[in-house]
Amino acid sequence: MEALLVFNAGSSSLKFQIFDIADGRLERRIRGKIDGIGSSPRLRATTADGAELVARSFDGAAVPDLPAAIAEARDWLLALEGVELRAIGHRVVHGGPEYIGPVLIDATVLDRLVHYQNLAPLHQPNNLVPIRLAMEINPEVPQVACFDTAFHHGRAEHTDCYALPRTFYDQGVRRYGFHGLSYEYIAERLCEVAPEVARGRVIVAHLGSGASMCALRGGQSIETTMGFTALDGLPMGTRPGQLDPGVVLHLITAKGMSVEEVSDLLYHNAGLKGLSGISNDVRELLASDDPRASFAIAHFVHRCRLHAGMLAAALGGIDVFVFTAGVGENSAPIRARIAEALAWLGAEVDAAANEAGAALISTTRSRIALHVIPTDEELMIARHTLALISTHMD
Ligand code: ADP
Question: What is the mean pLDDT of the chain?
Fold first, then answer.
């Protein structure tokens, strides 16, 4: 059967999924992931309904980097029966000012995406690895890049600029925003889940190991907490979120830290991990009775409160608040604490529904509907990929 392959390549993990194309519709067939690349790599894949297909551990040296992980995934995928690859869709973090929607990848596009590595130095190079490999190995299979930045494009210029001389904006120094594929999926899903309010004033909180919030009006992004890079906004697993740029100058000039050291601090050793000194994982922090763990969580919730307030101001009020991604979908205590922080806006959480993991967790009295919607970036990539190759091949 004709199928799409979707890649989502991160720094230490590679997610891949296969979607069958049945009568022009997408049916998910396989979810796969290799994580622990370079340390304790593990390949896991299941069917769409969760039945295990493979669970294999590797020696760290056998899968030291992303190309090696892709080779493992590819070997496993090639052994599958009945997959006729129609196209490959990729998550690409940065489309720069130029790519405001999904694009068919050719050598020129790849050159531009390499150029945008400067705008996302830690994410973009990884995203490009599977693209290059597929170009070499399967040059006849069309590839589509789907950007995290694209969904936020089109915001008013006075909202996506920094107060820097105009030339910087023209050179691409802008508040792009990220997690766009997730927000686009949620915006679509909300139309099905809550059609009466989906086009109203919506805040979506994508709370995973990376975290951001987005203000939607009419299903479009009008404001978001991330900016030029995926460092800004909310505190994250290992990233600090909003930080006075003066701190960076201080670290370099007064503390003598190199650019590499500061970069490593900001991307890998700050956020919940840095603040707690315990873990970047919200589960571990919630389970710990170490006061540093509860301190880090308190900081996270406080920053969520402030950023939600900022987005509510941008929207002129709020009708719906959506929790998504690893923490938002799975952590009732964090949802409860953020919802309590929104009480001044009229939010009231239904404790039993929240504990039970219901899709709607607000009371009937609540002025704001509180929803929990699992995100699906890979489905969004597959939809974009199918749409683009269908128009190009028609
Ligand atoms: P990403 O795709 O950005 O790697 P996810 O959206 O999968 O991240 O989120 C991963 C994070 O979700 C983990 O680091 C963990 O902190 C959090 N998480 C997952 N399950 C739970 C849970 N039951 N309670 C609290 N946090 C959770």
Answer: 94
